[in-house]
């Protein structure tokens, strides 16, 4: 079999091509099961002739590309690869498994996660894995991250209950995204020095962190170091389930929540981040859902005065749905528990507790969605076996 370099570092099953049809500068590749892919001459050029063998990146600026007629022909090689002939007399072999991955849309950003699993309180517990092995066992890390990106929520148990564990596990996933709270932060009631409502014993309604940012952090991780307080249970609600309920049962409120904008601003002594957006932000076509729902940092309406009353009415309904026991999980943190969740999708909150009786200490960090998905792709790549 011909050794064919792909324009990336992934591993592909050898999916031999059944037929090639040409209407230059297009080449249509067919597989025996009926799947086909249309390949433009310059796309093939960029991903074969123009690929640097070390970096696997394209080396040709678009201005320097030849004309579409650079492709003289194409046929199937004896090994089932696509062979393209160039007008200078050279040939390129294109990996049929790589082409098939494009045809099957496995190259798209969300291919690693697939369709999300929308959940309600019937799930009862988050998907849970043995955290004692996560630092050393790639299969445990992959299973945990797979559940994290599909359910938006996944838990480790039996991790080390020390203050360094959060950073070690976080950096095992990818770069930690810092914020005005630092890279790895502590969630603990600190009385008169509290820099956030989270650092009190107060009840926290269902929310998503840092709606004050242009792009809020993709995932949040919270690790329990100590918990001897009564109360303080953690609550989680799937924002996708909230959106489904609002869209189906409260269409007018849903319209207000997705179109009427607010100014969000963190009220910190050492920082002043601000952003404008709706509470349910669907972004562009390919953007993940972003819930901008944290009342302590919602500063002012950014809408016509006539719309403000219905914006407030919609927020009340939003909060009622987000706190509906039929949609919400409630679990107590135990030392060594580490919960990861999609900060833009999952709404989280906390029951009140008395900070004067016992201690509740969590260590947390943020990691961008891109880095979580990248880590999962590499774990799957390294565990794959080419056929």
What's the CATH H-level superfamily name of the largest domain? Clavaminate synthase-like
CATH class designation of the largest domain: Alpha Beta
End-to-end separation: 12 Å
Major sheet: size, sense and barrel closure?
A: 6 strands, mixed
Number of helices: 8
Structural class: alpha+beta
Overall body shape:
elongated
Mean pLDDT: 94
Give structural notes.
With 387 residues, this protein is of the alpha+beta class. It has 2 domains: 19-107, NE0471 N-terminal domain-like (2-Layer Sandwich); 112-378, Clavaminate synthase-like (Double-stranded beta-helix, 4-Layer Sandwich). 22% of the residues lie in helices and 26% in strands. The strands form 6 sheets. It has a 6-stranded mixed beta sheet. The chain has a 4-stranded antiparallel beta sheet with strand order 10-20-12-18. A 3-stranded antiparallel beta sheet has the order 1-2-3. Strand 5 (82-86) and strand 6 (91-94) form a beta hairpin. Helix 5 (239-249) crosses helix 7 and helix 6 packs across helix 7 (308-322). It is elongated. The model has no long low-confidence stretch (mean pLDDT 94).
At a glance:
The chain is of the alpha+beta class and 387 residues long. The chain is built from eight helices and 21 strands.
List the topology elements.
Layout: E1 19-23, E2 26-30, E3 36-40, H1 41-46, E4 71-76, E5 82-86, E6 91-94, H2 96-103, E7 128-130, H3 138-151, E8 153-157, H4 165-173, E9 184-187, E10 204-207, E11 219-227, E12 234-238, H5 239-249, H6 251-259, E13 261-265, E14 274-278, E15 280-281, E16 290-291, E17 298-302, H7 308-322, E18 328-331, E19 338-342, E20 346-350, E21 360-367, H8 369-383
Helix pairs in contact: 3-8, 5-6, 5-7, 6-7
């Amino acid at each position: 079999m011909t050794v064919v370099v792909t324009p990336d570092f992934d591993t592909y099953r050898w999916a031999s091509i059944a037929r090639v049809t040409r209407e230059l500068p297009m080449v249509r590749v067919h597989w025996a099961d009926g799947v086909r892919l249309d390949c433009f001459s310059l796309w093939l050029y960029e991903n074969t002739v123009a690929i640097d063998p070390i970096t696997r990146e394209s080396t040709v600026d678009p201005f320097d590309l030849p004309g579409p007629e650079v492709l003289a022909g194409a046929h199937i090689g004896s090994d089932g690869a696509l062979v393209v002939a160039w007008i200078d007399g050279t040939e390129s072999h294109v990996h049929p498994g790589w082409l098939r991955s494009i045809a099957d849309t496995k190259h798209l950003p969300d291919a690693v996660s697939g369709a999300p699993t929308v959940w309600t309180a019937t799930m009862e517990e988050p998907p849970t894995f043995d955290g004692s092995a996560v630092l050393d066992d790639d299969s445990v890390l992959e299973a945990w991250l797979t559940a994290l990106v599909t359910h938006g929520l996944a838990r480790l148990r039996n991790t080390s209950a020390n203050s360094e564990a959060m950073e070690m596990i976080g950096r095992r996933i990818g770069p930690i995204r810092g914020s005005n709270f630092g890279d790895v932060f502590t969630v603990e009631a600190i009385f008169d020095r509290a820099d956030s409502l989270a650092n009190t014993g107060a009840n926290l309604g269902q929310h998503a962190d840092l709606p004050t940012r242009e792009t809020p952090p993709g995932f949040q991780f919270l690790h329990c170091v100590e918990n001897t307080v009564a109360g303080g249970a953690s609550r989680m609600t799937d924002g996708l389930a909230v959106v489904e309920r609002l869209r189906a049962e409260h269409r007018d409120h849903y319209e207000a929540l997705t179109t009427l904008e607010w100014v969000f601003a963190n009220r910190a002594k050492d920082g002043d981040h601000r952003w404008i957006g709706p509470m349910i932000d669907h972004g562009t076509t390919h953007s993940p859902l972003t819930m901008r729902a944290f009342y302590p940092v919602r500063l002012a309406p950014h809408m016509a005065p006539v719309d403000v009353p219905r914006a407030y009415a919609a927020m009340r309904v939003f909060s009622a749905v987000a706190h509906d026991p039929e949609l919400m999980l409630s679990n107590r943190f135990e030392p060594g528990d580490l919960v990861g969740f999609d900060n833009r999708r999952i709404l989280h909150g906390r029951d009140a507790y008395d900070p004067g009786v016992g201690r509740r200490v969590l260590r947390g960090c943020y990691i961008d969605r891109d880095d979580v998905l990248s880590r999962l792709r590499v774990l799957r790549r390294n565990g794959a076996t080419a056929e």
